[in-house]
């Protein structure tokens, strides 16, 4: 439960060797500087695709970004082990390339084991994790786990006492027999979240930021104390009201069962299945822009307001999702060969009903809600989504490793996946615009139609990894990975169906490695390319004259999407030093060039302005060219001291690369003390450099090439978790 830990790299080295140095460590995947209750995403240089999680050989969610897996997963005391997938491993198991958490549950015990982890930080967040694992006799074992996370947040909100409340209850029953094992687990997890890590600041123009008035990022609240919100039901068109806190929540019921059976000494069969039943009443209040108040804005009592106005675009999800995953795997091993073949049968059924609305308030700490033309919430459902349907995957996969000699090893993998999507959506078809999302849109409006759809596609992945050892501890390694994926079901919720073109990923990587008693070293060059990205975005232009019902000087925004590619050329060096007993140092250095390619489009605005834009060669926004990680750890006697520091170089705000944020550090540290064999105390610190790490997408600058108008510019955005001290105790019995 206490998420602060430096991995013992030496203990993981034997497994890393068997996987051709592909899995190095868990890279402190749970040390997340932006969110304290979910794993961090480890970037390869392109925008985050979402976070995949595997548990007990099965995915925790079908999609990595729709109902993500961390809503029904936690690294609790019920977790036996946690590591990261290798790049080829994630491609073959999930069809995407990345480093993702992969955990296994505690299932067996020879004797009774119990544990309690408890922590509290100085902002009032409390975590408690209790686990008992006991043998029941005749090969049976039972594990019971309870985890609670009561998080007030660092910027305490008047709207709610707890910004996040996670309840996690898990039970596991297993039976060990002569040639295998059977297990079954049940999980109930409920997440209620209303965290709001946003705030206003001044964008200076040289990459730095400065405070706006007396607002302190990470300490002051930036939401008005409004308990309810108004919406229009996307199904019925009726007006409704809901409570932000009491009516929100993400319940998840997860039942998993599986068995392993040894057919003979060199052949093993396993079968596992998971049923996940979940849904959501969830709000996501996305930041809009800060604008100057005008005659449209008043306080709730009607008093005019002409100060700075923060707008929010709110998504209200009222969704259901049921998923069923089954995987069968046959593993074999000979003296020179290791192989496995398997099949996935995965299905998901969803009802995605998403309402949208807007609201506004003072751009200040402890803000008051503002009305727009007398309405607390306005322009509802201009971005509403609707899709009901199912998504199904049938995949065959295999992995074959050939130890050609003591020095040379080859590993090849292949995944062939048939996908089927079927359901009902509300699309614009045949040049019509009857389903365009406009103010007040719902299925009940005259002229709005729903259309059944059925899509079949072929996806897959292929990998080839080679390792050659020479000299004393030296080696050469190379790998090539390809994945192909089509649109997912949730992407059919908008007025325009998603592209039918597959997203193709190509990765080539190669370099050297070296290992001796005190150094484990790896240095690789990587080329990563992703084609057929389609991500609609808001593009803004200042109107030259009155047009489209807007006055001259108005910043008109168009929501336009186009297909484009991204490529990353990178050099990474990863090393682990263990020069003397008790001390280890993990370092990771990345130098990369992340660029857009084939990114060309032409928007046309209401005043007739139209220009072709070509962003090919521009650096990918939000991606750093230099990343460093430093993780020292020293253990002496009963004491252990550790730290983790990550450096990110300049990141561009807009796709024209005219605005950027300066480099920043993400830092963690801690001290552990073993009171005795069963009791361990800890003091951990987040962001000990106390950096804000402020970041924002400045909408008005989306197409700007001249940074001058954005000097000393008032904007709002996200920030890193502020300086936080956490006290913890671990008990084992």
Describe this structure in words.
The protein is mainly β and 733 residues long. It has one domain (9-732): Beta Barrel (Maltoporin, Chain A), CATH 2.40.170. It is 2% helix and 55% strand. The strands form seven sheets. It has a 22-stranded antiparallel beta barrel. A hairpin with a 2-residue loop joins strand 8 and strand 9 (180-193). The longest helix has 10 residues, at 9-18. Mean pLDDT is 91; it is low at 1-24.
What keywords describe this structure?
2 helices, disordered N terminus, mainly beta, globular, 22-stranded antiparallel beta barrel, 55% strand, four-stranded mixed β-sheet, Maltoporin, Chain A, 733 residues
CATH class: Mainly Beta
Ends apart, CA distance between termini: 16 Å
- What fraction of the residues are assigned to beta strands by DSSP? over 45%
Q: Assign an overall shape.
A: globular
Count the E strands.
Answer: 39
| Overall average residue pLDDT | 91
- What is the number of helical segments per DSSP (H or I, 4+ residues)? 2
What is the name of the CATH superfamily? TonB-dependent receptor, beta-barrel domain
How would you classify the helix and strand content by structural class? Answer: mainly beta
Helix content, binned percent: under 10%
User: What Rg, in angstroms, do the CA atoms define?
Assistant: 26 Å
Largest sheet: 22 strands, antiparallel, barrel
CATH architectural type? Beta Barrel
Low-confidence stretches: 1-24
Could you tell me the CATH topology label: Maltoporin, Chain A
- Compute the number of structural domains: 1
